[in-house]
Structure formats: structure tokens, C-alpha cells
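Revision sheet: C-alpha cells.
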Amino acid sequence: MKSGGSDLTNRLDTAAGYVSFQAPLERPALRCRHCGEDANLTVADLGMQPIANDMRQAAELDRMEPTFPLRAVLCPNCLLVQAQEVQSARQLFNSHYTYFSSYAESMLQQAKKYAHECIDRFGLDRSSRVVEIACNDGYLLRWFKEADIPVAGVEPTANTAAAARALGIPVLMDFFGETMAREMLAQGLSADLMPANNVAAHVPDINDFVGGFTLLLNPTGVATFEFHHILSLLEFHQFDAIYHEHFYYHSLRTFQRILAAKGLQVFDVQKLPAHGGSLRVFAQRMDTKHHPVEDAVNEILAEEERAGLNSPERYLKLEADIRETKRHFLSALIKIKAEGKSIVAYGAPAKGNTLLNYAGVRGDFIDYAVDRSPHKQFHYLPGSQIPVYPPDRVSDTKPDYLLILAWNLVEEIEQQMSFIREWGGQFMILIPTVRVW
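Predicted:
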């Protein structure tokens, strides 16, 4: 049989016909949401995965579960790492959203410290207003309200907004951007401080989102943004931070450019331990420049440059690091199960679901998971379908290993669950490397 295809196609005769050998298919490039160029360099491909926070109910276990490609790609023009949009923000952040910040004690304490520091640093009082974007269940604004400072929250998820309102915090339920900022200004709302914690990764239209801050800030107002630093993700192989809710993975350099394009200037930045290594960025309106630029800004920019974040090569190394990390922790889990030992997971975080589904870890490795949040208890993890129970189940079954999937809260969890030592139980994490203690 003679081939009539293109130069890329060769056909091999067989008794049953032919086998076709073709060049690998190329995916269409994602357009960078910031600069508009092709974001065509794959940083990480984690296969087909369910939505990481889409907990399953018992009645759904025998139904088809939708999965979507989970890939992080790099824009070679502006070096923004991003993921494709497989579901709209309104589908991802819905009335059944399961993440409530107040169930992590360390986050509550960090929020309290932040509030007190901002009150002192920026002279906030009863004549000021704090407007938090993505206020979740009020875990941060509660501390400003306690200090008699007027507050308002913006939050698109109905259940977390209801929890914030129960604390007496007024919440506007919608997605923030330039249109909403103009509507708030028309209602007489402007801001002296605008915190936005762990949301800069979650908004598909990052330019419109940032533009809303420029509009709503008073001339001397301050916006702060907290996000997982991509330098930490790369250095410590924290690939489980990649999931569909995260449209972006920011460096200070790329985020500074995004802010500048909308008239905001970075004047300070702090390193935080949250999420395995985060940044808190302080920004002001570029037309006022009320605050001097601190040395920390150039110091972290220089650190990123030394680490290679100003060129694509460093980002492209992550794929090989992910595969090596996966092989290493799978070997450890297989060895434990071959010895007849039991493993229970602590936490039902989105990052844990990325890890489990990428590695194919299900009930054959993990008996069940526990979580403090009642919004996750008596549900099943997406993909793996591992059941989730309250933490007190651990004392009933006495597992040999407690695998901490919420490894960013390891100290808090170790303290809460220290009683596993009574029967010789051990703690375990898998990221960045396997550690048992």
C-alpha cells in the first residue's frame, strides 16, 4: 500500500491494513491573559484531573466525574505562568465552595497580626475604610472590625459570604473588577486599605481585576496582595499548588509589571511562610506615590534574577522535577503498604487532590482522610473518591502513618494530632521530599 499522506505521515503495511505513524499533535497556544502573546511553553503537565475543590457526595460516586487537562504554561514574552480556563470563575467559585479560611488557626493568627500591623503602619482609625477583595468567611476583616474600623468585603461564593455576614461584616457578593469598582464608587465606597489574600491567582482577567484597585483606592490608599511565590514552587517542587482554580503562578517581577500596567506601584514586599513560601506585596497609586519604595522590593527582584526567573529555562526544568518527585514518593508509599502498614490522610485541600490524582493514589494506599472543616466531612475527595471524616476517627482506627496533605499547616496539624504517638503512629509528608517522623 502506498502512502498518499503528507511528509509527516508514514504508513506501515500489516496483515490487517496499516499502522499510521504521525508527528505529535500540537495543542493550540494559550493567549497570555496579561500581554496577549502566545503562552506556548509547557511548565507542567499533570494530565486529566477533576476540579480540585469539587468534593463528591455519596450519591454521586457511581456517576461520571468530569475531568479536564491540568497544565501550567509560560508566556515567553512576559514570563507569566498560567493555566488554561477549563471552567468559568462562576462555576469554580459557586455556592457550594468548600474552602473556609477560619478552620486554619495559623491563618487566623497571621490575619490578626497583619491587621494590627496595618493599623499601626498606615494610621487606620474610625475615619478609614478597609475593603477586602475575596474576604471568604471574614477571617481577616473580623480583626479590623474588632478595632472599630469600618470594613466591607467582596466575595463571590455565597456560603463563605454568609459566614462573614454572620460576624457582622457587610459583604458585596460578586466578582471584583473595574465595573464593580465603579459601582462601589457610585455608592460612596472607596478604600484606604484593600487586602487581597490568595486571590491574585484565581481571577481569569487579571488586568481587569487589578484595574479595580486603581479605581477604588483613595489617593493615599494601599493595596496588599498575598500569593504563593513561584520561586518556592520551583525550588521545592510544590507542583500540588497547580490546580484549575489557580489561573496564575506569580513572581514579584511579573506581578509588578501587571500592577504597573494599571497604574499601581509596588513600594514594599514581605516574605511569608504561608503555603510553603508566599509574598505579600504592598502597592499604591502611581500618580500619588505617597509611600517610599523599600529596599525589600529590589532585594527580592535580585533574588529572583539569581534564581533564573528572568528567563524561560528555569521554569521548564519543573516538569522533570515533578516526575522525579512522583516516583520517589510512590516508592515510599508502595514500601509502606508492602509492609502491611496503614495510612490515613490529614486534610482535604485542593493541593492534596492534585497530588493524589496525578500519582494515581486512591483507597488502595489511603484508608480515608480527615479534615476539621464540616463542609468537607462526610464527602469524598474528587477523583480518588477517598472518604473524609472528622479528625477524631484517627483515634478510633489508630493508623500507622498520618499523611499530611495540607503540608503548609504541618506544625499546626502535628500539634493537634500529637496523640498518634500513643500507639507509635508517625507523621508523613510527600512534598517537597518524603519525610517521616
